[in-house]
Amino acid sequence: MAANKASLPIVDFARLRDPATKQEELKTLQHALFGIGFLYLINTEVANTVRDVYKMLPGLFALPSEEKEAVAMVKSPAFVGYTKLGAETTAGATDMREQFDFGTVNEEIWKEGQPQWRRMEGPSEFPDYPGCEALLRRYLSEMTDLSNEFLGYVGESLSLPSDVFDPFKHIMHRLKLVKYPQCPPGSVGVGPHKDSAGLFTFLSQDAVGGLQVLSKEGEWIEAPPIDGSFIINVQQGFEAITGGVCPATTHRVIVCPLYRYYITFSNSLQAPTSTTRYSVPFFQGINPSLTLDQLKSVAAHIVSKVPVSDDAKKRAVDVPSEYLSPLFSCLGEAYLRNRVISHPDVGQKWYPDLYTKYSQQKLV
Q1: Beta bridge partners of 202
Q2: b or e along 132-161 (b: 16 or more beta carbons within 10 Å of the residue's beta carbon)?
Q3: How far apart are CA 202 and CA 195, in angstroms?
Q4: Start and end of every Fe2OG dioxygenase domain (predicted)?
Q5: Which of 10, 275, 319, 336 is most buried (CB neighbours < 10 A)?
């Protein structure tokens, strides 16, 4: 069961930008990230583009199967493209969602002899749908700018320079367009997990809701939609930078709940119009070549500033983090392991030896 209330903090991006309110809002940001691990971010400048993306989603997912399969993820070693319903797994269970995955433009091409995880930096394939590629490239560009500015405020919230996290950034970010179909009440859309693509996730969700967050007390709390907002959570990459002091927050999606409300800025409540759920998460990338040993030295001054919270109850029921495991040579390999296990069809086609290795591996 999950608590039925919006108990996640709200951070106002406009107040972070305003010198008159910045310091007060930085305190809110610090508590939200390091005390809770999830937050709502409101008043960004990406709202219009987000609305355009949502207008496109029903038609995009309604494309004939053969047109969606033309850009199937299984055709890409970079784990980008279309994933049909039931083809991805999380926490050992099948996800009840279909999705398109994309990445920001990367001109580098993997060459024989380079690490296998470098293959994940390959180009995206866009479905043949009017205006899709141009709109998503615009969205990726705007979200890259937003996430970089946000990362600067995270540094300032710790009384550090705004560019303190620049050495950890990467040019490769990822974007998902997700559809959770109508299912029996209480069905799990995606099981408990920690996002693994990098630093922070910026999630836009529609009016249906269903997202739940594992609190510091080890209890599931709901994160109902707030119109025009992004829900931001800590990913495993940022957790690794802090040496696990700031853990990536575990979350899940429950499809088609018995009831769901849509919170607007006027605080009015509206019943959802559909039990099909759409969401658009953007995953801010991290430098995949970083190792845990490197982080211990280059990030020590950051870790010393991170507030330590009492989350023993959460850790007792939490899922493991690949990025903190000594099994992997660097963060890039840890992320590759995550993708191979989550998308076994892609893993078996492009990384057969690693699929065999990782599927038998237990995280430590």
Answers
A1: 232, 282
A2: beebbbebbebbbebbeebbbbbbbbbebe
A3: 11
A4: 170-286
A5: 336
Task: Give the model's pLDDT for residue 259.
Answer: 40
Model pLDDT for residues 192-209, shown as the tens digit of each residue = 889 988 999 999 999 888
3-class state of residue 293 by DSSP: helix
Domains of the chain with CATH codes: 10-324 (2.60.120.330)
Which of the two residues, 105 and 230, has the higher pLDDT score? 230
Note the Cα 292 to chain centre separation in Å.
21
Measured CA distances, 139 to 174, 263, 280 (Å):
11, 24, 11
pLDDT at 256 over 80: no
Cα-Cα-Cα-Cα torsion 266, 225, 281, 147, nearest 10 degrees, comes to 40
The CA dihedral of 85, 196, 321, 278, to the nearest 10 degrees, is -40
**Are the beta carbons of 196 and 233 closer than 8 angstroms?**
no
For residue 198, list its beta bridge partners: 285
Q: Check: CB of residue 159 under 8 Å from CB of residue 230.
A: no
Cα R_g (the chain), whole angstroms: 19
Q: Which of 107-121, 136-150, 161-175 shows the lowest mean pLDDT across its residues?
A: 107-121
Calpha distance 55→83 (Å, rounded): 20
Distance between CA 299 and CA 95 in Å, rounded?
35
CB 42 within 8 A of CB 10: yes
CA 258 to chain centre: 26
- C-beta of residue 24 within 8 angstroms of C-beta of residue 154: no
From CA 306, how far away is CA 102, in angstroms rounded?
A: 32
Overall pTM surpassing 0.85 (yes/no): yes
What secondary structure letter does DSSP report for 86?
A: T
Residue 253 has pLDDT above 60, yes or no: yes
Q: 3-state class of 302 per DSSP? A: helix
